[in-house]
Design a protein that fits this description.
By secondary structure, the chain is an all-alpha fold. The protein is built from nine helices and no strands. Helix 6 crosses helix 7.
Length: 224
């Protein structure tokens, strides 16, 4: 690699790392907003919410522990999907989510339904922006994303979209069961597995692609 190409490579890599970092931070903030909305979170966070209710440690610590277990699985099964983005997600997302949620609780006290719906809309928009930046940077995937990719691409156990639906359903079911075991009321289940869960599971794709086209890809292309 000559000097000019090397400089281009380093510059491009820096912007990818920057996009990954900002993407993960934005996604983490969005999860905190989802928690304030209490109208359901994405499937993996549904599982984490149920576990968080059951295990009495801070969410940030719990997120690192769970993802460390999933990381071990990925390293043993197929480390191809593990990259710098995986570790940024592992060590930052849980703590930033916890900080965001704790801060918003001091600002948005006992939110009414209109406020909760607004929080849900804001959360969906910014998680799609964060996801677009994080995914376009292409420096690895989260440990949870890696599970479906390994089952589908490495173990050849089905098409990715179907495997992902199954893992998402399992996460939601486990989250609800853990929530009940922790003493949560059945009527409160929609706070962790509700309309927000349905929207993130089925309708995030088009929004992420929109922000890919409008923000993420042009940002990456501009640096080449």
């Amino acid at each position: 690699m000559n000097v000019a190409n090397n400089k281009t490579y380093l510059k491009n890599n820096r912007i990818r790392i920057f996009m990954t970092l900002i993407g993960v931070i934005v996604c983490a903030i969005s999860v905190g907003i989802f928690k304030i909305a209490a109208l359901g979170v994405d499937p993996f966070q549904s599982f984490m919410a149920g576990l968080d209710n059951l295990i009495p440690i801070k969410f940030g610590h719990l997120y690192v522990i769970v993802n460390a277990v999933l990381l071990l699985f990925s390293l043993l099964a197929d480390r191809h999907y593990i990259g710098i983005a995986t570790f940024i997600n592992l060590f930052l997302l849980g703590y930033i989510t916890q900080w965001t949620y704790d801060f918003l609780q001091t600002v948005i006290v006992n939110p009414n339904m209109i406020t909760r719906i607004l929080c849900l809309v804001v959360g969906i928009v910014i998680i799609c922006i964060g996801s677009a930046l994080y995914m376009t940077a292409d420096l690895g995937v989260s440990t949870y994303d890696a599970v479906a990719l390994i089952i589908s691409n490495t173990w050849k156990k089905g098409k990715f979209q179907y495997v992902r639906i199954i893992t998402d359903i399992i996460c939601v079911i486990l989250g609800c069961v853990l929530f009940i075991l922790a003493g949560g009321a059945i009527k409160d289940i929609p706070t962790i597995a509700g309309v927000g869960t349905i929207i993130t599971a089925f309708f995030m794709g088009p929004l992420i692609e929109f922000f890919n086209v409008k923000i993420a890809r042009p940002l990456l292309k501009k640096q080449k």
